[in-house]
Amino acid sequence: MADPTLTAHTLAHDDYDRYFDVFSDALMADRREQLRERFRPVFRPERSHGVFDGTELVGVGGLMAPEITLPGAVSCPLAAVTAVGVRPGHRRRGVLTTLMRAQLDALREAATEPIAALFASEGAIYGRFGYAVGSEEARLALPRGAAFRPTVEVDPRPVREVGRTEALELLRRVHPAVADQRIGWLTRDEGAWHARVLHEETGADGTGALRYAVHPEGYALYRPKSNWTARGPAYEIHVQEVAATTPRAYATLWRHLLDLDLVGEVRWNKAAVDEPVTNLLADPRLAVRDVSDALWVRLVDLDRALRARRYSAPLDVVIEVTDSFCPWNAGRRRLRIDEDGVADVAPSDASAQLAVDTTHLAAAYLGGTSLSALGRAGLVTELGTGALRRTSRAFAAEHAPHCPEGF
Ligand SMILES: CC(=O)SCCNC(=O)CCNC(=O)[C@H](O)C(C)(C)COP(=O)(O)OP(=O)(O)OC[C@H]1O[C@@H](n2cnc3c(N)ncnc32)[C@H](O)[C@@H]1OP(=O)(O)O
C-alpha cells in the first residue's frame, strides 16, 4: 500500500536536471555530468513522471515511444519504460508503486501503446506490476580465430573500418531493414541513435571508443578493451551490435571480428539466445553462452496487444484472464486466429478452456517462453482438453525474441 502523502504527475521541460539528479542518486551513478548531457536531448517531460513527497521530487520514471517488431514481423508502438529510480531514504513506502500506477493509467488513457517493456535492474521488482520476462539475452564469448564450418561463405569484399560520419549513412539504412524482421528490435530516431548507441565516451568498464566495421550489407559496432599479458596481447572485443541484411554479410562481419589482431576474445553481452554465429562455428562448443532476462513485457491493453502480433497456427479458444494491477484486462474472451495468423478478440460467456494471468501471457507474447512450459510450471491452467497445446503452438514465434540495446 503506497503512502497516501505521495503524489505523481508528469514533469515540465525545466525539471530535467532534478529528474536526472534523482535517477543518478538512485543508481549511485558516476560520470554524472557526461551522462546528464547525453540524455538531455531525449528527455520528454510529458512522458516522464515524478513522484513527490510534498514538493520534494523523490521518484522518477520515463517513457520512450519506439516501435517494436512483434512475431510475424509486424510493428507496434511500444511504451519503453526507462530511467526509473527512487531516492535512497524514500524507499519501500510505495514510491515506485505510485509511479507504476501513474504510468499504466496514463498509457491506458492515451491508448497509443498496447504494450510496455523495460530492462529491469533487479529481477524481483517488476513482476508485481504485471511485467514478465518476454525475451532473454546471451552473454556470448568466442575465442579469437574460431573457425567457421567449411561450407560457410564469407564475402571476399573486405569489411572496412570507417569513421563515424561515413558509417552513419549505412547504419541508418541497414538498421531499419534488420529491425523490421527481428522480433524485439526497436526503431530508432536520431535521439535514440545518439543516446543509446553512438555515444563516443569511453565505456565505464575500460573499453575504448566505438569502432565501426562496415560491409555494403551490414555493420558491426564494437569497443576494444586493451589487455597486455606476459604471453602477449589478449584484448577483448566488446560487440555493441551486429546487423546484416544477408547471411553472407553477417558471416563476413563476424569473420572480421574474430580475426582482429591483438585479440584474445570477442564478447557480445546482448546477443540473441539463438545468435546465428554459433551455428557458423566448426566447433560450436567454442561459443560460451550465459543467458539472462532481457526485455520485461507488460500487456497494457490486452485485447489490442493480442490483435497486434501474428500467430503461428489457427486457433479458437476461450481464455479466462486475471490482472490485479490493471483490472481492465481481466475477464473472459474468445481468441480466434485465422489461417494467416491474424487474431480477433471478443468478450465471451462460453466456458473457459484456459485460465491465465496477463503476467504469464506477457511472458509468452514475444514467443520467448512457451505457454506449455508455463503450464508445466502450473502458471497456466488447462480447463479444456488440448487447449494448452493448441494455444502454445499458436503463440510460438519464428525465432527467439531479442533486443540488442539497453534503455
Ligand atoms: C526500468 C528501469 O529503469 S530499472 C531501474 C530501477 N531502478 C533501480 O534499480 C535503482 C535503485 N532502486 C530504486 O530506485 C528503488 O529501490 C526501486 C525503484 C527499485 C523500488 O522503489 P520503492 O519505492 O522502494 O518501491 P515500492 O516501495 O513501491 O515497492 C513496491 C514493492 O516492491 C518491493 N520491491 C521494491 N524494490 C525491490 C527490490 N529491489 N527487490 C525486491 N523487492 C522490491 C517492495 O518490497 C514492495 O513490496 P510489498 O508491496 O510487498 O511491500
Sheet with most strands:
8 strands, mixed
Name given to the CATH homologous superfamily of the largest domain? Gcn5-related N-acetyltransferase (GNAT)
Helix/strand-derived class? Answer: alpha+beta
Total count of strands: 22
Radius of gyration over all CA atoms, rounded: 23 Å
CATH topology of the largest domain: Aminopeptidase
CATH architecture of the largest domain: 3-Layer(aba) Sandwich
Based on Cα principal axes, name the global outline: globular
First-to-last CA distance: 28 Å
Nearest-integer average pLDDT:
96
Number of domains: 3
Strand content: 25-35%
Low-confidence stretches: none
Helicity level? 25-40%
Spell out which ligands are present: acetyl coenzyme *A
Please write the CATH class name of the largest domain: Alpha Beta
The number of helices is: 11
Binding site for acetyl-CoA: 84-86, 92-97, 121-122
Active site: 126 (proton donor), 407 (proton acceptor)
Subunit structure: Homohexamer; trimer of dimers.
Keywords: Acyltransferase, Transferase
Describe this protein with a few key phrases.
single chain, 407 residues, alpha+beta, Aminopeptidase, Nonspecific Lipid-transfer Protein, Chain A, eight-stranded mixed β-sheet, seven-stranded mixed β-sheet, 11 helices, binds acetyl coenzyme *A, transferase, aminoglycoside N-acetyltransferase activity, acyltransferase
